[in-house]
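User: Before I run my own analysis I want an independent prediction to cross-check against. Here's the chain; please return only the structure tokens and, at the end, one sentence I can use as a sanity check.
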Amino acid sequence: MNRFYDEYKRKLRTPEEAVKLVKSGDWVDYTANVCFPHLLDEALAKRVDELYDVKVRGSLCFGPIKIVEADPKGEHFCYNSWHFSAYERKLADRGLCSFIPMLFSRNGLYYKHFLEVNVAMMAVAPMDKHGYFNLSCATGVAKAILDKADIVILEVNEKLPKICGGFDQVIHIDEVDCVVEGEHGELPQFPISPATPEEEKIADHLLEYIHDGASLQLGIGSLPNVVGARLAQSDLKDLGMHTELLGDAYYELYKAGKLTNKRLNLHKGQGMTGIVFGTKDLYEWVDDNPTVIIAPLTYVNDVRVIGSIDNVVSINNCVEVDLYGQISSESRGTRQISGTGGQLDFLEGAALSKGGKGFICMTSTYRDRNGETHSRIKPTLAGDIATAPRTQAYFMVTEYGCVNLVGRSTWERAEMLISLAHPDFRDELIKAAEKQNIWRKSNKR
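Assistant: Structure tokens:
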């Protein structure tokens, strides 16, 4: 046992010493979310004047990212993200963050087969007596990055929870080149926003389709979390969890006695996830909790794995949908907002699941920065990036109802989707559908 601690001490460096391993032209990875390496990022930013063309990848990093802030013209560091957080979205608006399109289910495979990683840096939980560091809240993406890296630098964050897992949730000290320590603030917190009247109606529509024993996937975004919290107030029981993201909605379901995982036919009694971020209560709940397990997203989001689970209910949100059923969940026009993530994975996985259902939810309207109201249901996706093709559109939900587009022709889809639109926009949508030759005269008005 002492050998591991001796090895740890031998590899211990200050952040400033560790980042000297980064060279101009390198590809550097920060992994994801609350495992962002704050101390290493700050130390690397201090080298801004001596480094050039250092490309850095991250995902759902909540900021601040010091290498970007220290280089406002992007002359030394080039930051890229697999999935935008609100902070990364603002960086992109300033031309300081580029988006990398991907599916979560394949993210690890991209690294394994195609990408170069010269230096990987991430925050991890403290080493255990066996010499292992838990990859904590970023396990879903971390191991593939660390395995591919030429140099691995770990930043020990004593605030990170240790999350149980089946595989690839740890890395051993023997696989690590440097370890750094230092003080950390509290982990970022993301409480569930209060539900709007429209979101409450959406949740009520969903409740009609969800039954006892369902296995829930709640996607990234405020609406799925709000819906999950509303489910905690329902009469449902023995719900399960198989999800890419574990947020506070699941903790609310657990506290309400709804989340038991008893009826899961895969990993029975254990809810599975790949990424975790939320409130302090959530971090404490998942810490060393054998009923919550974490694994790489190449497994969690594998459509074959999802499809092998009975009664999967996938709940995700979108930005817009057009009258053909094309779903945009990650952009407003060409402005990147978030990412594809695992939405497409779970739409397909839920379709393969016995008794499974895939839902895409949205409020029928939104207001722009000028206060003008717009419909989220559009004649076409004019410039918006399609996250899910029309062939993968299943249940669509707004505060006005829920429809299932599976097997429906273009005119049927148009009628169904227009029924979900805000009444103020329905006439103009009908006119657009007529112009697009997807409206029958016998259609309802």
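Sanity check: The first helix runs from residue 2 to 11.
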